[in-house]
Amino acid sequence: MRCFMFPGQGSQFVGMGKEVYENYPEARKIFKKANDVLGFDLTKIIFEGPEEELTKTSNAQPALLTVSYAIYSLLGERPDCAAGHSLGEWTAFVVAKTLSFEDGLYLVRKRGEFMNQATPPGFGSMLAIIGGNMKEIESAVSEIKGVEIANYNSPAQVVLSGKTESLREIESAINAKRKIYLRVSAPFHSSFMKEVGDKLWKEMEPRQFSNPEFPIYVNAWAKPVNEGKEARNALRAQICSPVLWTQSVQKMVENGVTNFIEIGPKKVLTGLVKRITPAVALNNIDGKGKIEI
After folding, report:
1. Global pTM?
2. Catalytic residue IDs
């Protein structure tokens, strides 16, 4: 069994997808459609930047969806299941035809806007802990108010989300190989995002969510979703819930997945899966060179 994986925010870079755009008319149509749906030249931001503009949450999210979807559309193959990391979960549901590319694009643009507006500037951030002791980290999180675990990326990497002062406190309390503050504007995947989930739900509610054509393993529950109603609930839940990436990959392997293929820029998820379960086949299709598995 094989799983297609789609990257989330942080994998974007200026120029991603340009080779696909230049070489495939089908891809150019998707980029043009993205521009039309959003009402501005997203393609120019993707290819020319500047980086600060592309990195904005409200631009990075539709940009990653567009590039990953364009690459997928050229494969002409479907997986046995799929998953995405945070924003990438939206891409997974789009390729599974749970919602249209146009609706997905509109909603992730709104998602990014709502996330930017969720907390005042400087209120919170996210801190990656690499090579720390999980029990020690969970203990510190339980003792220091204003911090939550936002991402279980691999057995050796978790990301904390919370108030800036609380993150500084927990940073000094934890021993780890590396501690890295992420370039984000707010404490994503935490209870501080509840208002975002509520606003996004109002945008999602009137839109059609069909049953996915193949199971999608969702971040919030680390289990496969097979119904449109479940998909809508999962996409709302992931806003305030930790990304259970480690648990999702383990569940997929338990259910028979032996081949993980990352579709989109960079190789972040490929690296994480390798650390979670090395005894699987891994591949990455980033749009460079021939598009094939």
Report:
1. 0.95
2. 86, 189
